[in-house]
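Notebook, student rotation project (T.W.).
Task set for the rotation: take a protein with a known small-molecule partner, predict the structure of the complex, and write up what can be learned from the model alone. Partner molecule chosen: flavin-adenine dinucleotide. Sequence and SMILES entered below by T.W., checked by me.
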Amino acid sequence: MSGVLVIAEQRRGELRPVSLELLGAAQALGGLPVAVAVLAPNPARFVPALSVPGVAEVITVELAISEFDPDTFESAVGALIRARAPAVVLMAHSVDSFGYAAALAARHGYGFATDVFKVERTGGELIATRGGYGQKVNVEVDFPGRDTVILALRANVFKPPEGTAAPVVSAFEAPAVESRSLGREYIEPPGGDDVDMSTAEFILSIGRGIGEEAKVAQFRELAQALGATLGCSRPIADAGWLPKSRQVGQSGKTASACKLYVAMGVSGAIQHLAGMKHVATIVAVNTDAEASIFSVAKYGIVGDIFEIAEELRRHF
Ligand SMILES: Cc1cc2nc3c(=O)[nH]c(=O)nc-3n(C[C@H](O)[C@H](O)[C@H](O)COP(=O)(O)OP(=O)(O)OC[C@H]3O[C@@H](n4cnc5c(N)ncnc54)[C@H](O)[C@@H]3O)c2cc1C
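Predicted structure of the complex:
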């Protein structure tokens, strides 16, 4: 095939949005033919959703397991790669691929990079960009001498293709495998709430500048008065002051639909910026005039967030 093989990701019968983002990334690889494989019980049900422009073939792989299993996926994806010999395999950088992709690449000598947020082919050479040294630098990785390269791509970065298409649909039979693990129970991650940060149009985010948990209430009220969705930086979620679902950034949510983002007491670490720097109107409040958040802000206030919050409350 020597094209691109995308491994779609589904969880509990729902196609994960990153699957379509992988197809968007595949299109940027200079016109290589794209096939997408979906591994699941009754995989045919995902064919319509994966039939988007740029996809030449949807490959269904029937699996008997209802929950993700690393041995089954390593075996099935490995067999598919050997059968199709793709130049590039794209999968999500997710808890699923953590379980089998590195083993697969190591076992067969494939090129491999994780948490990739940019991928391109120049002059036939594949270059993947990922963070390095705790995301402090961007690292460009190439893969000399590798016929097949597996890339695990970061979610919420690549644009999914729009529209529908009519790709060829084929079935692939995965070899039987004896798994070494057993899924006992599926438990939803704790601490979430109903909010979906990716659909919020106006976000007021708080960072470590609020100092203590007791101050969260003041900003919750302010957000409510302004009609904003309350978001936060990672230290606030890590401390349990707000649910993880409110965290914006690389390991949190992307403010995809946001038009106005107010960052209060947020320094603007690269990982936070990853989730919001694209927003058209960013307002930042920080006592430190040198804070990185001001580099992406349209409007900046060098000042105390509590004073600004009180002043705003007087008007709303
Ligand atoms: C792999 C990885 C993934 C990560 N993912 C994320 C992520 O998804 N989201 C995320 O946010 N972070 C993430 N981080 C953490 C990130 O590196 C930063 O540590 C974090 O964003 C810092 O949060 P902060 O800006 O709230 O805190 P700080 O960096 O401590 O900044 C607090 C700011 O508040 C200001 N301040 C203090 N008091 C006041 C006041 N009274 N008025 C006004 N300003 C004040 C200070 O000047 C400072 O700029 C990740 C890190 C790693 C390594």
